[in-house]
């Protein structure tokens, strides 16, 4: 950023802007914000409804709140790694509201806790608890996008147990509340 200011002193640099519009000129802060810029152009050319549909299909926020805060993208829920691990992951995806402590998961696949933790780290790059949390977050995001279920039901079905826990996980991973997420991504019925 400082380099841009030095090389182009006549250019106005806004360090916190995701997308900047000045007359006919449009700029973006980086690769992810390039997607925001593209979405902004879709909105200008095709209208808000189509831009929202495109954002939903690309799993992007229609308009990211705040500055250049980056959101982790929703991944498809697909098991990874060895077959024993995949079987456990499929069970978690199908029943996210069950109890999945590391000890319980280790018993399910007949491994020691440390073995399971090493296997998860090697095969997914995550701890077992982090994988479960991210899976539950993905499920909650999908339920919120559908827009039909109240937050209490979303929290329970995704395995968070309470709206308070759901809210805390959303804030930690996405920097927004579930309500804000639904407002940006939820389907209008």
Layout of SSEs?
Layout: H1 2-7, E1 19-22, E2 25-28, H2 31-46, H3 48-58, H4 83-94, H5 102-108, H6 113-124, H7 128-146, H8 151-158, H9 163-174, H10 178-185
Antiparallel strand pairs: 1-2
Helix pairs in contact: 2-3, 5-6, 7-8, 7-10
What this model shows, in words?
The chain is mainly alpha-helical. The chain folds into two domains: 2-58, no CATH class; 83-185, Homeodomain-like (Arc Repressor Mutant, subunit A, Orthogonal Bundle). Helix content is 59%, strand content 4%. It contains ten helices and two strands; from the N terminus they run αββααααααααα. It has helices at residues 2-7, 31-46, 48-58, 83-94, 102-108, 113-124, 128-146, 151-158, 163-174, 178-185; strands at 19-22, 25-28. The protein has a two-stranded antiparallel ribbon with strand order 1-2. Helix 2 (31-46) packs antiparallel against helix 3 (48-58) and helix 7 (128-146) crosses helix 10. The longest helix has 19 residues, at 128-146. The chain is elongated.
Give the tags:
Arc Repressor Mutant, subunit A, 189 residues, mainly alpha, 4% strand, 10 helices, 2 domains, two-stranded antiparallel ribbon, elongated
Q: Please, how many helices?
A: 10
CATH architecture descriptor text of the largest domain:
Orthogonal Bundle
Tally of discrete structural domains: 2
- Shape descriptor reads elongated
Helix content: 55-70%
Major sheet description: 2 strands, antiparallel
> Mean pLDDT, as a whole number?
79
What is the beta-strand fraction? under 5%
The Rg value, from CA coordinates, equals 20 Å
The unreliable regions are 61-75
Order of helices and strands: HEEHHHHHHHHH
Characterize the quaternary organization of these chains: single chain
How would you name the CATH homologous superfamily of the largest domain? Homeodomain-like
Distance between the termini: 43 Å
Query: What is the SS-derived class?
Result: mainly alpha
Which fold name is given in CATH as the topology of the largest domain? Arc Repressor Mutant, subunit A
How many strand units? 2
- Spatial order of the strands forming the largest sheet: 1-2
The CATH class of the largest domain is Mainly Alpha
